[in-house]
UniProtKB/TrEMBL annotation:
The keyword GTP-binding does not apply. One of its GO terms (biological process) is carbohydrate derivative metabolic process. Keywords: DNA-binding, Transcription, Transcription regulation. Gene3D superfamilies: Glucose-6-phosphate isomerase like protein, domain 1, Winged helix-like DNA-binding domain superfamily/Winged helix DNA-binding domain. It comes from Mesorhizobium jarvisii. This is MurR/RpiR family transcriptional regulator. GO terms for molecular function: carbohydrate derivative binding; DNA binding; DNA-binding transcription factor activity. The keyword DNA-binding applies.
Length: 281
């Protein structure tokens, strides 16, 4: 394979994002779809992917060739390899944990491993967090009439905590989640006077990315928490934070993400109180 052809998903994603401004319209359309829906690209047929992305099947071939591949099938292999690398089963992860426990230290070794991973994550975010970004995000959220909270799958516990804490602080908020499938209707109420906290990590939940795209198109400012400057969520955000969580035996913690979520939530509450005091003075 040519050295210039992306060999793994991260390199492929970086290449696409680097070239996205210069891609022809239809190829840019499938490129955006590919980054937002990598699982669909891995498992779909050319016809089904093209239909979902709203392009002709021939566009998939031209997209692959733009990136140096000889055809779409070769490009698709990169997406399939990503799943093989990332989606080790929970049974395999538990086996790794059991092996550590049976190595002599017992289940305390498992606990210590998770504590070490959490400590690493917290130390990393403490060292890398941009103070100006934190202040900008808090100021943006504090001015919002309603704060919408958007997350799915692994990120969902963080979203529910944010919604809970905002409620306790008497700050109007809306968790974008509906058992009745009314997410689109909830999102339709958001205006530029509101704001969104969106959270997603690789492999990015397609629903989160699509809903963030819709909200962004409505002119609603987004504060994003994600794991890379190449995250599809970052492109929609007014302010975004990169959080790299350490893992233990394949189980990734949410320690740093939760710490940032708590700081944003409490910071918004403090900012609003300060504003109210100044108005009364």
């Amino acid at each position: 394979m040519d050295e210039r052809i992306p060999r793994d998903f991260e390199t492929l994603r970086a290449t696409i994002l680097d070239r996205r401004e210069s891609l022809p319209k239809r190829i840019a359309q499938i490129a955006a779809y590919a980054l937002d829906n990598p699982d669909d690209i891995a498992f779909g047929t050319a016809a089904s992917i093209a239909a979902s992305a709203g392009v002709q099947p021939s566009t998939l071939i031209r997209f692959a060739q733009q990136l140096g591949f000889d055809g779409f099938t070769s490009l698709q292999q990169v997406f399939r390899e990503r799943l093989r690398e990332r989606n080790s089963s929970y049974d395999e992860r538990l086996q790794a944990l059991r092996a550590k426990a049976e190595g002599g230290a017992g289940h305390r070794a498992i606990f210590d491993g998770f504590v070490a991973a959490a400590s690493t994550s917290l130390n990393d975010i403490s060292r890398t967090l941009d103070d100006a970004h934190l202040e900008e995000a808090i100021s943006l959220l504090a001015k919002a009439q309603t704060i919408y909270v958007l997350a799915k799958r692994r990120s969902y516990p963080v979203a529910t905590y944010i919604a809970y804490a905002l409620g306790k602080l008497k700050i109007r908020n809306q968790l974008i989640e509906s058992a009745a499938g009314l997410n689109a209707e909830m999102i339709a109420f958001a205006t530029p006077a509101d704001a969104v906290i969106a959270i997603s990590f690789s492999p990015y939940a397609p629903a989160t990315i699509e809903e963030a795209r819709t909200i962004s198109e409505q002119g609603v400012p987004i504060v994003a928490i994600t794991d890379s400057s190449f995250s599809p969520l970052a492109q929609f955000a007014r302010v975004w934070f990169e959080v790299a969580e350490a893992d233990f035996a394949g189980f990734r913690s949410l320690s740093a993400t939760m710490a940032l979520a708590m700081a944003l939530t409490v910071g918004v509450g403090e900012k609003r109180r300060d504003t109210a005091r100044r108005r009364k003075a």
